Each structure stands twice: as structure tokens, then as C-alpha cells.
Amino acid sequence: MGTAALVLTVLAVGAPLGSVSGVFPVVIGFGGSSAPIAYVIATGILLAFAAGLATMSRFVPNPGAFYAYVTSGLGKHAGLGGAFLAIFAYWLIATATYAFFGSAANRLVVGFGGPDIAWYWWQILGWACVGFVGYRNIELSAKVLTVAMVLEVAIVVIFDFSIILRGGAEGLGFPAIESEIFSSGNIAIAVLFSVLCFIGFESTAIFREEAKNPEKTVPRAMYLSVLLVGIFYAISVGLMILAYGQSKAQEVAAQNPAGMFDEALGTYAGAIFRDICAVLLLNSVLASVITLTNMLSRYLYALGNDGVLPKALGQAHPKHRSPYRASLVVTAMIGLLGAPFMFISAEPMVFYANMVGVGMYALTVLMVLASVAVLVFFRRNPQSGTSVVKTTVAPAVSIISFAFVLYLATTNMDLISGLTGGLAVALVVVTYLVIAAGIAVAAIYRRARPEAFRRIGRQEL
What we know:
Layout: H1 3-13, H2 16-31, H3 35-56, H4 66-74, H5 76-111, H6 119-136, H7 142-166, H8 180-184, H9 186-196, H10 214-244, H11 249-255, H12 260-268, H13 271-305, H14 324-338, H15 341-344, H16 348-380, H17 388-411, H18 413-417, H19 421-448, H20 450-455
Helix pairs in contact: 1-7, 1-10, 2-3, 2-9, 2-11, 2-13, 3-9, 3-10, 3-16, 3-17, 4-5, 4-16, 5-6, 5-13, 5-14, 5-16, 5-19, 6-13, 6-14, 7-10, 7-13, 9-16, 9-17, 12-13, 13-14, 16-17
């Protein structure tokens, strides 16, 4: 695989249309007309993060997951804590994305004259289909994902140019930067959600063995993925704000998050593109939930195969060769977490925003751990030929930046989660207790099950 193939793989996993339709309204809701700045900040932080990660991938035997980096830099106790946190984060994000799927399916069916039934029935249907796909090990073709991604990007580009050509609701002009969102901490929340659009960029390291000249192509693909996503989304979110006008965009994002993008697309580009978008959006979100549930299954499968979790989770299906038991457990986990919200959440996109926000908070904590791991790894294991900028300066910048975002997000957890008081505090506490649980399990295994302890992170003592 060359650089272009790696970048296209990352962009396909990122589900561009799902990001524009589902994440933009949340970022605008918190950032207002300053939403493009949130993407610029996120791009800068992730470029620094990518610099350390790409450099470390050359020296880590198993660069397939964040927790492998954490293990290499901070040890097996922290590594298992990172693995547990990754499972927790992706569990929340996957469950939230099913609500997005339910909303997208309902809008598609109603838009084409079908019955208007409750969103959660579509969520249940999607949950059952994805569970079947995971059990049977039916993988989405990379070519299919790439074609779908190209079509999704084309729709967004058409949207962008239609707004430029027609001038927006209040004329063209760079959206104003509102200074109060910096003092209120809303910019940190907007950045937190912006990072969701970059999910998958770190997966370029997984393809080292398949890449042509991986020493150059993997880092290049990682940087290009972050830059392309950041620039594309910063421009597009700015144009979405102009589509409604800077004075009204934030209000629309709060009142109609599910329809914000496709209604603007229909207004500026035409009804035919809105209909095409509805079909592609459902495909985009479906691909996203399949990817997220597969990631979760692979985490459980790997930990089960190593004996860290019950070994039954590490068994492959004799016929389909799928991690079927891990997949069934993941399907059950998502069903159990999502079921109560069918009865207490009337608006699926509000549920999506709240739960995915908590998941992104946990994932950001994991990225802080990974950044610290990069810094510590190169302090303990100096490597000739590596740049101090990539091994020290960049990780330090990402640690400080992510930590600042986490601080502001922690103090505003009520806005992120939709919960108040002790419940919001409990979510923060639970996130760090998940890490503590992994550390505690590793400590127990070190004494009682040294073989399992030795396999944490796929490293050798």
C-alpha cells in the first residue's frame, strides 16, 4: 500500500458524511461561529500527537492499538488500564452511533413517503444486522468503502460550492470568532467533538507490514490524513454556518441537529442531492457502526486470546473464523447500554451527542496516556536518527494541549453529558476508575497469573 491507499483507507473509516451530518451540529452548538477554529485547534493538536505516534511505531513490535503504545512506554499495568479505557470509550461511541443510525433511517424512510415510526425500531434493526455481520465475519470491502467515501465527499463538496456560489443566508465572509467561548470553556468541548471526525487516523500504523517503504509512507499518510480531514472540515463547517447565517446557525444546531445539513443541502444544491445524501448517510453511519463494533470485538478477542479476559472470548468460529464469542458479547453490551435510552430519550441526536461526548472524553484521556507513553519511551530508549522535535517536543505539546482540553471538558461535563451535579461528576470518576480497574487486574495477574501478565500489550518482559 502506498501513501494514497493508506490515506483513502483512513478517510473511508472516518465516514465523512456521518461526521458532517452528525458532528457538525454539535460542534456548532458549542462553538457557534467559532466552530472552524475548533477544527483548526484539533488539527494542530493531532498533528503533534501523530508526530510522536508515527515515530514510535517504528520501534514498537505491535503497533496495532493505543494500548500497545501505552504498554511500551508506561508498562503493563498502565497498558491494561489503557486497554480497558479503549473498550469503555468505543463502547460508548458505538452505542451512541446506533442512535444516529436510527435517526438517519427514520428520516430516509419518511423522506421517501414511508411510515414515521419511532427511531429506536430502526436502531434495533441496525443492531441486529450488525450483530449478524460480526458473528459471520462479513467484512466490508475496502473498494466498497472507498467508493462510498468518494461519493460522500462529493456531496459535501457540492454543498460547499453551492453555498459559495449562492452567497449564504447573510453573505459570504469568514465566520466571526467569539471571544466568550474561550472564557466559557465551550471551545474545549467543540474541540473534543471535532476530534471525533479524525477517528481512525492512527490506524495507518496497523498497515506497516503492507505498506511500501513504511518508514516514509506510514508517517506521511498519518500527517496527510490529519491535514486533509482538518482542512476539509474546517472549511465545510464554516460554510454550514454561512448557509444559515452567523446569527442563526447556533440556534438551528440546537433545535434541528438531525436535519441541519440535509435541509441546507436541499435549499442550496437541490432536492435531488438531499435525497442522495439521505441514502449515502445511512450507508455511512452503518459502515461506522460496523467498524466500531469490529474494533470492540477485536479488543475483547485479543485480550481473551492472551488470557487477560476469559479465554472463551479469544476463540474463533470454526467455520466463519470470526471472533464470534467476543462479537456476541459486544452486541450484548451495546444492547444493554442502549436499551434504557429508548424509553427516556425522545430525540436520538441529543442522546447521540451526550453519549458520544462522554466516549470522546474517555478517548481523549487515552490519547493523553499514549502521548505520555511516547515521551517516556524515548527518554528510556533513546534511538539514533530520531528527531527531538518528534520524540520530545511534539509529545509534550500534545500532552499539554489534550490536558487543557480535558480540564475544561471536566469542568463542563454537565454540558457534554446532559447530566448535572453528582451524575456529571460520577461520569468523570467512572472514566478514571476504568483505568484503575485495568491497573488493579494487571497487579493481580502479575502475582497470580504471570503468563497472562507477560502477554499484556503483546510485549515481552
